[in-house]
Amino acid sequence: MNLLVQAASSDDGSFNGPSINEFFPPTLFTIGGLEFNRIIVVRLIALLALILVFWLGTRKMRLIPGRFQSVVEMGLDFVRVNVAEDLLGKKDGRRFLPLLTTIFFMVLFFNLTGIIPFLNIAGTSVIALPLLLAIVAYIAFIYAGVKKSPKNFFKNALFPPGVPWFLYIIVTPIEFVSTFILRPVTLTLRLLMNMVVGHLLLVLFFTATSFFFFTAGSWWSLFGIGTFAFGFVFTLFEILVAVLQAYVFALLTAVYIQLAVAEEH
What we know:
By secondary structure, the protein is mostly helical. It has helices at residues 38-58, 67-112, 128-148, 153-158, 168-180, 182-216, 221-261; strands at residues 27-31, 34-37. The N and C termini lie far apart (52 Å).
């Protein structure tokens, strides 16, 4: 927990709350001209953990699975049934399942680093990764639409059928912004801001706990008990948020793909 609980008091004994500077940490080391800070290291750890979990869960597949294989299969089936096939059907669901599965578990593992001791910051709490995943989802949306209807995809997206021609002056710019600009932006910001706010709140609770217990002392420690309780409860809530954000990101990606392959395109 020492990486989460920053210095809660300054030299004059006043309380220092969390800062946005925590998302721009200094460089820890450099390899071949590449700089690695705390968040990059956290992302690498999450990526290695993700690879390790699926390698261990699938390296010796059995007809009657063991516990670990069962857990991995449950996670894969959850994405297949509740995200891919539920929205895209079996044919398109199977086609885009690798992408949706990768997005779900990548977001999940990178989110969960925010509550793991000694890591204590989500790998998705800096814009680069959420933006990259949103761009991948955006490219998949465009690809699916063009593959389904090469000639009519952009036409139908920008000039919806059945609209009086004179209204296209208003409708077309709105459709362009909402379909081709706001979708990747909202995907990025929804994930990013949830992880940023969650981290700041956790830091606030636990730095306040440290301040009340070790700096203020005396009867102020009673407040420390309260802030620790809030921090513990909010940690559990952050686990739920991490799972929900992974599900929402994968689900919205599937929704956009479904809209792209709909018959009217």
